[in-house]
Amino acid sequence: MTNSKRIPLFYITTSLYWFALYTYVPYVSPYGESLGADMRLLGLIVGAYGFMQMIVRFPLGLLSDYLGRRKVFILAGIGFASLSAFLVFFFPSPYMLLISRALGGVAASSWVAFSVMNASYYKPEETAKSVGYINASNSLGTLVALLVGGFAAQRLGVPYAFLLAGIGGLVALAMGAWVKETRIKKEEATEDQPVLKLSTNWASAFNVIRNRQLLYVSLLGVFIQFVRFASQFGFTPLAAVSLGASPFQLGLLGVLSVLPGVFISPLTGTVLLKKFGERKLLVVGFALAGLSCAMIPFSQSLWQLFAVQVIGSAGMSMVFTLLMGLCIRDVSPERRATAMGFFQAVYGLGMFLGPFVMGWMGHGFGLTAAFVAAGMVGIVGVVMVSVVRFN
Question: Could you tell me the CA-to-CA distances from 236 to 61, 85, 148, 294, 384 in Å, in that order?
Fold first, then answer.
């Protein structure tokens, strides 16, 4: 199968994968609260998604490079995504929601394999463009998920958003079975494209993660994910509920958290990158993300909150597209899953700490102070990008 035929099927599968992961995300914290979870448990529920990625992603990338395979991890991730949604629908409780989000984190860890397989369809100098396209596919799948999930939650009830996600995962699994990959076989290894041996795998991985740019980019990933999962994918829905949001409006809020990414991601990797360069775009992106997060508790209406959500999403999409491209740009193809796995494992720390810290701060000091503190993390990102040089 030629790349022209591989790529559309791969991107459809990618969109369905994110559909399975995000159909119900706007309802996690409100639904958990309705099931009896307090603010601290809600922080753990939301943070479990990032915690599992922090643990799983790097070993998964390492194993993927050792085996020279991506597809098996893609299919496994889709399967976990479907399972995590079905569990909440059939066995609703705060602690099942916690287990579900942990399994969802395992599922999301296969994004390592998705990202590296995507890069294999393009030339090395097209890395930024390939990242822009797969991030747009990510955003499109998430966008459709949130729209459809919003209708389901409004008409049938929140649990049916989980059911819909599980069904979407099964469809993604069927589509993913037809995705083709180029596997590097040991007998076909060359000097330019070696296959990692078990005895040298950890040593090779250590050499990869010593890369200064990868370490720096990964740290920036922690900051942007802290802000994103503290707000958009964490406690912003609770702010919306306090303003009287209906289930459909919560879904619309979720849509506005990803819609800008459909347009910003491909533009960032192409037109904007050529015109402004990485550093300027990262500064602007972090500033938009941090300031919008700090403004959330001061929104006086849902329309104001929606506007803040759009601004923050644009900044986060810009930053994330650039960081994904930078983390593997200077890494050889056979070790890209290791580099991507390390990057995604490290930024998983931000996905865990964001909602965890928000939950404890919200419990002790109120959500207004928590949102402002989370926004300041984005400003720390601005300072980091401004003063620290990278390759």
Answer: 32, 21, 20, 11, 26
